[in-house]
Amino acid sequence: MDDKDAATICQPSAGVHIVMPGYYSPESMGLLDPATSDGRVIFFLPWQKMTIAGTTDTPTDITHHPIPSEEDINFILNEVRNYLSHDVEVRRGDVLAAWSGIRPLVTDPKSANTQSISRNHVVDISESGLITIAGGKWTTYRSMAEDTINAAIKAHNLKAGPSRTVGLFLQGGKDWSPTLYIRLVQDYGLESEVAQHLASTYGDKAFEVAKMASVTGKRWPIVGVRLVSEFPYIEAEVKYGIKEYACTAVDMISRRTRLAFLNVQAAEEALPRIVELMGRELNWNDAKKQEELETAKKFLYFEMGYKSRSEQLTDHSEITLLPSDVDRYKKRFHKFDTDQKGFITTVDVQRVLESINIQMDENTLHEILNEVDLNKNGQVELDEFLQLMSAIQKGRVSGSRLAILLKTAEENLERRVPIPVDRSCGGL
């Protein structure tokens, strides 16, 4: 700023991270590999009961909406395969979320080696006394701030005592203890998993969140309605997040909670309820709710890897099943397509589920079928089902709710014992 001829010292670099199921890594052990196949560094760590792996390091242009590429995702997966036993299949379909972040790599203007790029931050004091802080990352913000203030004190002879940042608690940290979650369970009737999440996330502010928690209507837990069943995030966190200036649905799924980073599909499922809760608190009209919903879905689709994930199954996907597998899956399909129409709808699935005493609401069924309805005509055709099963076999798709649902229903139908005539209230 004070020297128009100063050389550029920052170079933007994109790094991609992926999240996979927790069973890929031990709970308390991580791995850092500084010598991958192309020389980039890869880490492989347990995180939020999942596994996080990354990162790539690619020069990039600056954009507000970086998108993870399929090439980078596959690079990470290929490296991960080197760390696991050969009998563990690392599947593309197990990538639950993927994102790209841009970080500033920086050259120290005072360094003799002008080609040397640092992944740490650099503090520079110009001849005029201007202090520049460049590089760094969110996780080192305190160190960056301390170094910058220390440089200012030294350069301008400012009067100040030693830095206190090391001893300053984050909000909620003052009265936190490892057993704080037990009080949340005992005093409010929260599930243990939810209480542990609230305590570790909010510290002693967890009690404020617990006070906002809705009654579940169950014997246990008493309060704490989850946003999605497999994660400990509860509806009260949406209300509390708004108190701390969360303004958008994207704020809620990616910054106030980590749903978008842990599982994009779960985040999408939670969105309608999140938007409804935020709309109620912030007085959104229907148009605003729809806008928030669409913006958040676009964020998940492009920036959090949903697009890349969904492209693993398209209407151009090959069917590479063995003839015996094709026959087996056709039989499964026709247990639902009893009219031999060549497709199934929510009505067909609902009929079979009711026959084996499984209840599922229509909206959920629509969501499940829509994941596989490649041509979006409101029904799943036989070829679409076979494409799905082929993609699952190849590891490109995993966790398909329709595949699991149909398999479970088929097994229940086969186990069902015929009712004897003398107990069926009829027969001659």
UniProtKB/TrEMBL annotation:
SMART domains: EFh (SM00054). GO terms for biological process: glycerol-3-phosphate metabolic process. It comes from the Eukaryota. One of its GO terms (cellular component) is mitochondrial inner membrane. It catalyses: a quinone + sn-glycerol 3-phosphate = dihydroxyacetone phosphate + a quinol. The keyword Oxidoreductase applies. CDD domains: EFh (cd00051). Keywords: Calcium, FAD, Flavoprotein, Metal-binding, Mitochondrion, Oxidoreductase, Phosphoprotein, Repeat, Transit peptide. Its cofactor is FAD. It is an enzyme of class 1 (oxidoreductase). Gene3D superfamilies: Alpha-glycerophosphate oxidase, cap domain, D-Amino Acid Oxidase, subunit A, domain 2, EF-hand, FAD/NAD(P)-binding domain. Its main location: mitochondrion. Pathway: Polyol metabolism; glycerol degradation. One of its GO terms (molecular function) is calcium ion binding. It is found in: Mitochondrion. SUPFAM superfamilies: EF-hand, FAD-linked reductases, C-terminal domain. The keyword Hydrolase does not apply. Residues 324-359, 360-395 form the EF-hand domain. Transmembrane segments: none annotated. Its EC number is 1.1.5.3. Belongs to the FAD-dependent glycerol-3-phosphate dehydrogenase family. Calcium-responsive mitochondrial glycerol-3-phosphate dehydrogenase which seems to be a key component of the pancreatic beta-cell glucose-sensing device. PANTHER family: GLYCEROL-3-PHOSPHATE DEHYDROGENASE, GLYCEROL-3-PHOSPHATE DEHYDROGENASE, MITOCHONDRIAL. This is Glycerol-3-phosphate dehydrogenase, mitochondrial. It comes from Myotis davidii.
